[in-house]
Amino acid sequence: MDISYADWGTVEPLPIEDKVEVIANLPRKVTSETRLWLARTQEKPIPPSAWSQIRDPGLDASAKNRYVDSYFTVCVFELRQARTLSIPSGQSREKVVEVSHKSAVRSSYSTKLLIENVVEGGLSGGGKLNFNLKEQLTTSYSIETLTEYSQESSDLERVTVTYQSSTEDRTVQWWDLVKVIGLYRRSTEGTVSLVGLEDYLAKMVAVTYTNNGIMSADGSAQLSVA
What we know:
Helix content is about 15%, strand content about 45%. With about 230 residues, it is mainly beta. It has one domain (about 20-225).
């Protein structure tokens, strides 16, 4: 099932995990699917004292107090196919290939929704910096910066490929392991709406397939928010 981050009803049913075993969730055979959603974390509430750090269009402090029940964030673990390379039987490969890492959020959503544009790092709680929302996001979800994926909508990485000749056809697929942070508002009526969103490239894994399935996987076996 495809996930729309703007539709909480498609995000909420995902399995709830703080970490995922990436290798175990990789497709067992070559697939044309380009995106796979693995799990999401528990909702992490944002204290009302930090609501002033959220730029929520049309809602000033007074309106937030009247119409907002809560703000919360979640992290979704996602796999995205970045590149496919076919190696026919009897052939070897030794070359440098370019793998494109594409930010699905930056290419599909308005820049107004990017976390970096929605979340302020200002003071809260009567002028005391007792809760910095930007720091909370980077710490809670192990994100180095709020612009970690790439400065643009995509980035190229050059990868050296070395495969000896084999009697079997092989296909190499590179997968991006991505964390997607969503910031949501739950109204006093129970409606959940997307306020901010950003995706972060955590790792890349290269998977080699034969006609019988996975031959090898080169990359981290685990992705977590810890």
